[in-house]
Amino acid sequence: HVLKCCQKVLAWVPVAFIALVVAWSYYAYVVELCLYSTKSYLCFIAVVYLVVFHLSFFMFVWSYWKTIFTSPASPSNEFCLSKADKEQYEKEERPESQQEILRRAAKDLPIYTTTASRAIRYCDRCQLIKPDRCHHCSACDVCVLKMDHHCPWVNNCVGFSNYKFFLLFLMYSLLYCLFVAATVLQYFIKFWTNELPVTHAKFHVLFLFFVAAMFFISILSLFSYHCWLVGKNRSTIETFRAPTFRNGPDKNGFSLGCSKNLREVFGDEKKYWLLPIFTSLGDGCNFPTRLVIMDPEQVAVPSQIEPAK
């Protein structure tokens, strides 16, 4: 129990680190740069900087907050075994008999994927049949719908309920770092060439430029990668292990085309795309597949899933 408590406390260390860096960047930019370092004839420019800065800062913090504190979506009760099936499943020792129980329970569920051995995906920890694209997170100790990965920087799972928030968090943090680095650059050069008086603000400005540039470079690759995933309608897990349908593994099995893939995450109303408000389509359990569109007869319905060998 003590070990679990320590793990929960330590899991917030990366989040606390990001919060401290963001709080310091706010102080360094607003107080040290815009209030103390700009000359009187640059007041108008400083006001413009502050307006744009606070707008990007607010959107960044809002999306980061939503990513952290949005609970991962879990499968509904319809995917849980009944009490009788659960008792029978636990009594059975043969995998074939257990799979027969799972096939009977999953007969009417919207499941089109299986394990690599053609067995029904079942979580012994949560004691439920996994919907498509659902995976168990060992850190959160819960099954997460459309799980992408567990992110230590937000101390939360990134999945169906908060994937849009995570993408916006990456985008606004990227814009935040880019804006800070671009506007600080001229003062960074002036401080470096001793065109401005040496004060304690010099060190804040120097470090602010380096930190913003460093985070911008690191976030850019991650954001580009997730933009590619959205266009392909894949999760990070599915990139490394393609989902298995009746016809075998298919890494593009859930792709419906770039436009429809984008709307699946951000919704149909474009006016809400840039706001960290949940607008994703579906319920996290029912996903249209490329196989359904191409040939409905080839879809792996649960009753046709072969038993594990």
Explain this structure.
The protein has about 300 residues and is mainly alpha-helical. It has two domains: about 1-75 and about 150-270, no CATH class; about 75-130, no CATH class. The strands form four sheets. The protein has a two-stranded antiparallel sheet with strand order 1-2. The protein has helices spanning about 1-10, 15-35, 45-70, 85-90, 95-105, 165-190, 200-230, 235-240, 260-265, 290-295, and strands at about 120-125, 130, 135, 140-145, 150, 155-160, 245, 250. It is built from ten helices and eight strands. It is elongated, with a radius of gyration of 25 Å. GO terms for molecular function: protein-cysteine S-palmitoyltransferase activity. Belongs to the DHHC palmitoyltransferase family. Pfam families: DHHC (PF01529). It is a multi-pass membrane protein. Keywords: Acyltransferase, Membrane, Transferase, Transmembrane, Transmembrane helix.
